[in-house]
Design a protein that fits this description.
Layout: H1 3-15, H2 18-25, H3 29-43, E1 48-50, E2 55-57, H4 59-90, E3 92-97, H5 99-116, E4 121-126, H6 129-138, E5 143-147, E6 158-171, H7 177-181, E7 190-192, E8 201-205, H8 210-221, E9 227-232, H9 235-243, E10 248-252, E11 262-264, E12 270-278, H10 285-302
Parallel strand pairs: 3-4, 3-5, 7-11, 8-9, 8-10
Antiparallel strand pairs: 1-2, 5-12, 6-10, 6-12
Helix pairs in contact: 1-2, 1-4, 5-10
């Protein structure tokens, strides 16, 4: 007995009419009638009887339909299971994030997932949080790592999975006076006040990014006007420019050692990172695997349980 016969019988029972069922299935009515006769010969009993309005299942037909639907559900589940395995063996995963995510958080995750599923292919896009959220919402990306909150039209269509709290710390050139004067309470990093940035050249992230907006707002709330002399997208570029004496700069704590950099004395400059994915479409098996690996990696990195 073929699955196609079961699917055809199910559609006839649902439609209650041979012609409508044939139209839905895209077959001719004579072909559908021939299939039904063959099926009835196989089971040894009439499955349908005609009425003035179409057809109805017989007692035998109703029992057969229950088992046919169970068989079809099992077959569909089997096919889906195979597709998921194939998806992990030869599928792809598209992930977006800002500079911190793509440079420091994602590499060990990609490495771990590739070791387990070497057939997977990865597409990693570095962009600001707003662009990443929009790309996930449109289906261009499977997952994104963004700074909360998510704003704009994409917000309602995304599921947010809290990932980690990040701190932005100030880095200064070697021998800089702020490095020498920064107060340190072991085992905490040294601190600075916003007023210490007055007159300081700042190597900053690009305007319009979530991180740059946080820094600008915090400085403005403290009554400090920042002197931005250079804007960059790459954290490593900011670190190199600061090391060359161009100015001071803010970077993620993940880009430096645990006790490196200066933290804001008036209140740490923190942001909440989250994984985002589309709400109305279930993630692929590859995306699920990647998300779980990312959460495990962050748990190990921060020493906090999942």
């Amino acid at each position: 007995m073929e699955l196609t016969s079961l699917r055809y019988f199910r559609e006839i029972a649902r439609a209650g009419h041979m012609t409508r069922a044939a139209d839905t299935l895209g077959v001719t009515q004579p072909a559908l009638s021939a299939m039904l006769k063959k099926l009835e010969r196989e089971v040894g009993a009439p499955l349908l009887h005609r009425t003035g309005r179409g057809v109805e299942t017989t007692d035998a037909g109703r029992i057969f339909l229950i088992h046919a639907e169970e068989a079809l559900r099992a077959a569909d589940a089997a096919v889906q299971g195979v597709r998921e395995v194939v998806g992990l063996e030869r599928g792809s995963i598209r992930v977006g994030g800002g500079a911190t995510a793509t440079t420091y958080l994602l590499p060990p995750v990609v490495s771990a997932v590739r070791k387990k599923h070497p057939g997977l292919r990865f597409y990693i896009r570095e962009a600001g949080s707003a662009a990443v959220a929009a790309a996930v919402a449109s289906g261009e990306l499977d997952l994104g790592i963004v700074t909360l909150p998510v704003a704009g039209a994409a917000a309602e269509s995304l599921v947010r999975v809290p990932l980690v709290t990040d701190e932005l710390r100030l880095i200064v050139p070697p021998g800089h006076r702020m490095e020498r004067s920064g107060k340190r309470t072991k085992p905490e990093p040294a601190t600075f006040r916003w007023k210490d940035l007055e007159g300081q050249s700042l190597v900053a992230f690009e305007a319009g990014t979530a991180v740059r907006g946080m820094i600008d707002r915090a400085a403005a709330n403290a009554g400090v006007t920042l002197d931005v002399v250079m804007e960059l997208r790459s954290i490593e570029s900011i670190k190199h420019m600061v090391a060359a004496g161009i100015g001071v700069g803010f970077v993620s704590r993940f880009a430096i050692g645990d006790l490196e950099g200066l933290t804001v004395r008036e209140g740490r400059l923190t942001r909440h990172l989250a994984i985002v994915r589309r709400r109305e479409r279930g993630p692929s098996s590859a995306a699920v695997e990647f998300e779980e690996a990312l959460l495990r990696s962050i748990s190990r990195l921060t020493g906090r349980p999942l």
